[in-house]
Amino acid sequence: MNIHRARRRPTGSLTGAIALLAVLALVLAACGGDGTADTTAAASPGTTTDGGTETTAGGTETSTGGEEAAGDPIVIGSTLALSGPLAPTAAIHKVAGDLFVEQLNANGGLLGRPVEWVVLDDESVADQAASLYERLITEDQVDLIMGPYGTGAITAAMQVAERYGYLMAQHTGSLTYAFNYGCQFPAWPTGRYPNVTNPELVFDALEATGNPPETMAFVINQFPGTMFVAYGYPDSGDAQDAQGAVSIAQERGYDVVLDVQFPLTIDDWGPIAAQVRDADPDFVYLGGLGVDAPNLIAAMDALDYQPAGMFVQWPAPGPVLGAGESAEGVLSVTAFEAHPPFTDDPENAQIAATFEEAATEAGITYAEMETQASASWAAWQTLVAAVEGAGTLDNEAACDYLVNNTIETIFGETSYGTEENNYYGDLSYVKQVQDGDWWVVYPEEFAAPDHAIEYSPEG
Amino acid sequence: MSLLSQAVVSGVLAGGLYAMMSLGMSLSWGVLKVINLAQFSFILLSAYFTYQLTVSLGIDPFLSILVCVPLFGLAGMALQWVFNRIRISEFESLLFTFGLFIILESLAATVWTADFRRLSTEQNPYVSESIWIGSIALPVPQLAAFVAAILVAFGVRHLLRNTHFGRAVRALAQDRDVAVAFGVDNGKVSMQLAGLAAGFSALAGVFIAMSRAIFPGLAVEWFGIVFSVVILGGLGSTLGTLIAAVIIGVVGAVATVWGGPPMAPLAVFLVLIATLLFRPEGILGAARRDT
Amino acid sequence: MRLRPAAAATVVLAVALWFVPEFADGFPIFYLLFAYNVFFWIAQASSWNLFTGSSGYFSFGQGAYYGVGVYTVGVLVAKRGWPLLPTFVVAGILGALLGLFIGLIVFRLRKLRGEIFALMTLAVAFVMGAVARVSSTIDGGQGIPLSGVELPQALGDFPAMIFRLGLIVATLAVLAAQVLHHSRLGWGLFAIRDDEAVAENLGVPTFRFKMMALGISAFLASLSGAVHSLQISYVTIEDVFNIRVPLLVILMSILGGTRHWMGPVVGALVVYTLNDRLNAAGLQDVSDLIVGGLLIFMIVAVKEGLYLRARQRPLRAAIGFAVGIGPPIVLGLTDSAITVMAYGLLGAVLLLMLPVTAPVEEAVPVHG
Q: Which ipTM was obtained for this model?
């Protein structure tokens, strides 16, 4: 290191002042420039924003009939990953929630009163979510809460909800074995044992083609949810938790030729792609999220290799389609898609249409309503049904109501509690990329008209 | 065996990109005595600019080089001017650029949101194309980065050895005060070098936008790799950086194939630790000559 | 401040604060949780500065000790059913062992330069994360929910309990920093910071002192992490072994000032409060900009940090605080004491940042 010379810089100097001005300028610029980022700036307490329009009590959208909600607003608090790695998908939940609240208010509100949704940014960090829920409950003293996005945040927030006795409807938690709080309600119909029901569904679908694969490769993201589906969670003490996609595949007679895991922050897909190509499986089971699928597809393309078939666990739907030709035939699971028979119910069709409009306006690249948005919608429907059913804002009473009654959601009749941890069965369907879009293809009763699963080991 | 050779090749090419990302930091630290964390911001912002230019103007992503490199080169020069002006020390520069890094990441999130930004295969056909040598595939973006890294590394080496500017730079690196006493214009030379360093980072950013999805939090994930490369290669040594980057790329790729992907970061950081312990001056021993 | 009055004041304050939860009906419960988080950051920043601020050896490895603390509780308590309080102590000890291990390699095996030490600590932190990911005994990627953990009932309900646990750890950290500041160990470390070769020639047992400070620092950081696991309640590698904790403690200590044990305390309070309030208002981006800008400004113009600057110009700090809280109170703009305090702190900070006319010594540790 250099020898330090004694510094006799005049500290009351030009540079200090310039630096200060620079900081102030930056702050002012940031405050002024808030208007564009409507998917990242959280609503300040007191207002909800929906793609730029402010919604106050009374609603700005006209709807068919319905009285105006009046009185003191009911405040519902939650966090979402408005920034950070989970933000792209959380944005969908922001749009869904805003839309739901807007429509709710235009149709008489909750218990006759307007609803205000306060959303804070948990930055995709689980303990941040926990602190923020504590703030919402103990400082802002919100009347009700809605679950956050992402298994980590949901698990962390659930502890807080339990601590203060708040009902928590949540839309995307996958750690089913850990959700043992009696007043949490998992709106997403994965069922209590997605580690069993999900792979079974996929393998059933493959076998329904009459030409199933013989060899399989498993490439699994080290994200808790995808790990659970692939390998189970033996430590939970429940025997059924110990199974996973890999063990079930083996049980059903598939030859597992590759089994690799990769970290969330993977940089170079080349080696994995090479391993897959080397193993030459008839089918690839990618326990992936977000953009794992298009990344792997591109890496395999670079090796001039594409497997005969591929399944992705919970991808961001848009980017998969953006992977071009090679994405054709890729399978995934969903609880809802914006086409018949799901849209046969006119109410659901209406919801899907208005959602697509709102999502497009909010700048979401894949704007169609699918699993994420529908799970969000169902969670809100659950919360509203609980409060309306109990006739009170008392969380305990609302919770009791849900446990003892059947309600209607976008997924149909829902009876929380038919399975452990308030689950109510696995209502997932297999979807596939065909002609550049996603279509449900299995089971047959739920398949889009003129669409059926396409797979053969020859590719 | 072909799996291993493909992995090794993949690692070598990845090393090219790592080298590109690390050259700026290595030169900055080794010669200018500035630990410039803003280099990561330059890489990230250059990637974003590449994304935006390709999406908005529909141009070939490679063309972004013409915009990003000069632009960030100027930014690098401006930053160095500030450093010279306030006579910043090495550690202070680390903290200063850390503050800058936080600000720039926040700005990126404000402008482009935290959404993953990825050029589609249509906008960026290179992402799934490869050049083939026998049965070994060389993906185009990584290959381009590798070739660029070699050109840059040898170019800078030539510059340092055979030009007036290069001699001035080496003199400054050896002993700033003496060099200045002998007439080297510290201000001008340091700014030009800083501009080059930032330009290299910007170049890396273009290749990054062409090979993966980007998001604001991505920059922080590069710290580990870049510091590993910079230390292993020896501060200020361009050839060392290149070799070190390739070694790290290969170590990561081979670890992936042998132990699974989670092993790759572990292997790389163990290499870093070993280097710090047993060869802190870098593989070519081309460290700074003071203390 | 001399040691005995300072330490005594700290203990008295701690005891007084202990009883605050008894009056929890008089104010929002949230204040207890806010205070807990401030305690957490005070403990983290103080433990970091205890080693780095004194010795001048810049450590990027805070995340490693924090991670060890969190995961010790996760693995031993949640997975193996160990009792909670003893596990806290075990966590602290494991952290200390890690620190000592690093110190042994770095200080004994090779006499490494300052920045190499810094990078080594960063590398170790990354390695810990990678190891946790690879080993399914520890995590293996699944994460560890802490839902079934039995909490000690004696300390009150959850907010009271975590407030008190955080208070204990923060008090320990601050006391340790104070004792160090005034002890032979502390003077020895300052000597090392100024010039290690000279210190050694003067008879300072540099290796022993560095090891002691490192061990204490790591113990406290790990202990604080162990308690914090209860707040997180769901432990994952991404959330624990990332760069947030190490960067924030550096930020807080630099802002508050590394030369004095009060520096990290002030830094933690200011940074956490501002960030919390801005985040609550949906202005996280602005918070990042301010924090980044403050850091740059401090490096350039207020090298000694906020605390020593406030000591130099106490009137300014007081006026700034008063000016900050004045308008919000008068205009009735807010009903949260925390927000009012945030305004006050901001006012004080802004006024303190204005130029002074005394020459400034270098406050940033420059070792190597």
A: 0.82
